[in-house]
């Protein structure tokens, strides 16, 4: 029997397969049903990051995957644990982030009829498949390495999305032969010359062109700037595309999906080039988007050509390759006069959008100002791990001036709460030299605040800014705008700095932009997390912070 066919446990097959694929870290919590898996992970020298809740594990893996582009792994036990992680994996699915979820499942011989086995779920893998669409329940110890190879092959090819592998309980410690099944990724499709030529001809005479750029184009920042210059086109970014180009780039319009000015500028355009974006309502709020007749769409996923837009010129290809080819073709067909006219049109809209962003983000001007001062002095990339909270999507998304290479991690698709802190932890573990700032509202922060303890234990140096308006501010505003009496939205929150200190983190309250910059810089020198508490000045805060005081 060769070494590759050695009789080893299902848990050992898993650990060896992960190690062979370059996985050096997993996020997860040991449990009664996965002890053999964790024993074998440790034996293979794979680092284990222990969150305080499986949802935290999923968000940590998501943050690490976003900043590296590499598959990250979450390991849980059965039943409640895997479903705890599933909310985070839903976020990864909707934002196209490669996270591999692995857990035990009911034994092969289990009837699945409510027999009362610990953590029993009637059909765990089928339930997860309904969310992720990619689920594999193995049937022998040796099949584990095949499942890993197949999952990673899919996740490394084309559009990256999560996958799930379930190992029945009776196979984890059962021995059996197996073979190595290395993952194989197909090369990205090259753009068809005829499609490039057709798109360039349609764009050649455009006077009011726009580029809409999503996170699928993150690797094409330089190329997108050049295409923008050739066309004279303004660049609109999705939330997670922030940092693909420099926010100070002369043709940038920014991540303006939340602004009321967005449909106005789109309605005025005569051509749009959408690159690596779903054009999803969760990113670009007016629905449907008022797109012009000419829509060129570049995306690895051919199915995207049929979603959220009527596409006149589909280019199913890698964003970088297609952008280079389109720019080259336009150099031959685009007149400088048309480009100058486009830039002149663009400049007027830049003034309008800048004014709209300042008005919308006014309650968070000091937060954004502090972030901008801090970023300007940073000598390494700055990663902002944001939560689904007003200060992020109305404030930081448009008000923070990211440089090319900085990152804005935002839970756009599923819109989960509690994402920022654990995603920031994962990002910092994956890129230790980066400066990581997590931002959450006081309501969302409580979903995953326990992960501060995980960051302390792992000695993760990052800042957590909590912007406190006394509860669920956005929902309070929506209720008020409907004419309803706000109910269930004012929250009695903890003393956040004291809570952080009780876990071994630093905690402080600040009131000015200058204090924020100082706190962020000091956090870099602390071997652990620093919680920075800010009281929000907004209509929601005026109402709910007063209610919180009454509740005390």
From TrEMBL:
Keyword terms: Thiamine pyrophosphate, Transferase
State the Pfam families in the record.
TPP_enzyme_C, TPP_enzyme_M, TPP_enzyme_N
Q: Can you cite an annotated GO cellular component?
A: acetolactate synthase complex
InterPro entries (UniProt xref): DHS-like_NAD/FAD-binding_dom, THDP-binding, Thiamin_PyroP_enz_cen_dom, Thiamin_PyroP_enz_TPP-bd_dom, TPP-bd_CS, TPP_enz, TPP_enzyme_TPP-bd
An example Gene Ontology molecular-function term: thiamine pyrophosphate binding
Write down the EC number. Answer: 2.2.1.6
Q: Name one GO biological process term.
A: L-valine biosynthetic process
Looking up Gene3D superfamilies in the UniProt record yields:
3.40.50.970, TPP-binding domain
Domain Thiamine pyrophosphate enzyme N-terminal TPP-binding residues, every copy:
9-112
Which of the seven top EC classes does this enzyme belong to? transferase
Specify the Thiamine pyrophosphate enzyme TPP-binding domain's residue ranges: 400-534
Q: Locate the Thiamine pyrophosphate enzyme central domain: which residues?
A: 196-323
Family per record? Belongs to the TPP enzyme family.
Provide the protein name. Answer: Acetolactate synthase-1/2/3 large subunit
């Amino acid at each position: 029997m060769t070494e590759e066919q050695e009789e080893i446990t299902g848990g050992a097959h898993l650990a060896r397969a992960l190690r062979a694929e370059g996985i050096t870290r997993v996020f997860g919590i040991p449990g009664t049903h996965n002890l053999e898996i964790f024993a074998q992970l440790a034996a293979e020298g794979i680092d284990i990051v222990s969150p305080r809740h499986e949802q935290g594990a999923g968000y940590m893996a998501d943050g690490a995957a976003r900043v590296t582009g590499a598959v990250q792994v979450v390991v849980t036990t059965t039943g409640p644990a895997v479903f705890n992680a599933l909310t985070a994996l839903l976020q990864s699915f909707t934002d196209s982030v490669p996270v591999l979820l692995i857990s035990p499942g009911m034994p092969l011989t289990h009837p699945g009829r409510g027999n009362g086995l610990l953590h029993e779920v009637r059909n765990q893998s089928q339930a997860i498949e309904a969310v992720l669409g990619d689920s594999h329940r193995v049937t022998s110890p040796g099949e584990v390495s095949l499942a890993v190879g197949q999952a990673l092959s899919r996740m490394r090819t084309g559009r990256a999305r999560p996958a799930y592998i379930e190992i029945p309980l009776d196979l984890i410690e059962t021995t059996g032969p197996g073979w190595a099944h290395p993952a194989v990724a197909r090369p990205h499709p090259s753009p068809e010359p005829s499609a490039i030529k057709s798109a360039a001809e349609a764009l050649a005479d455009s006077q009011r062109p726009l580029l809409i750029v999503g996170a699928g184009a993150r690797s094409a920042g330089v190329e997108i700037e050049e295409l923008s210059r050739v066309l004279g086109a303004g660049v609109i970014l999705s939330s997670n595309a922030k940092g693909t180009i420099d926010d100070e780039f002369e043709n940038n319009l920014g991540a303006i999906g939340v602004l009321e000015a967005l449909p106005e500028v789109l309605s005025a355009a005569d051509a749009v080039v959408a690159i690596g974006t779903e054009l999803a309502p969760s990113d670009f709020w007016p629905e449907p988007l008022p797109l012009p007749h000419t829509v060129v769409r570049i995306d690895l996923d051919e199915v995207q050509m049929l979603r959220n837009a009527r596409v006149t010129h589909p280019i199913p290809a890698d964003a970088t390759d297609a952008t280079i080819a389109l720019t080259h073709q336009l150099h031959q067909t685009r007149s400088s006069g048309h480009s100058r006219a486009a830039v002149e049109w663009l400049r007027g809209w830049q003034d309008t959008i800048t004014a709209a962003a300042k008005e919308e983000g006014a309650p968070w001007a000091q937060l954004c100002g502090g972030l901008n001062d801090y970023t300007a002095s940073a000598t390494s990339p700055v990663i902002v791990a944001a939560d689904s909270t007003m200060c992020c999507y109305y404030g930081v998304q448009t008000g923070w001036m990211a440089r090319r290479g900085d990152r804005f991690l935002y839970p756009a698709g599923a819109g989960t709460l509690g994402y920022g802190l654990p995603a920031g932890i994962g990002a910092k573990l994956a890129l230790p030299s980066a400066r990581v700032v997590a931002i959450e509202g006081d309501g969302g922060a409580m979903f995953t605040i326990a992960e501060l303890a995980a960051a302390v234990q792992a000695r993760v140096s990052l800042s957590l800014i909590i912007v406190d308006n006394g509860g669920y501010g956005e929902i309070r505003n929506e209720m008020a705008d409907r004419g309803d009496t706000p109910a269930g939205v004012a929250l009695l929150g903890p003393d956040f700095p004291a809570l952080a200190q009780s876990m071994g983190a630093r905690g402080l309250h600040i009131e000015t932009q200058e204090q924020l910059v100082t706190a962020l810089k000091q956090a870099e020198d602390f071997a652990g997390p620093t919680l920075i508490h800010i009281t929000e000045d907004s209509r929601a805060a005026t109402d709910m912070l007063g209610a919180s005081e009454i509740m005390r």
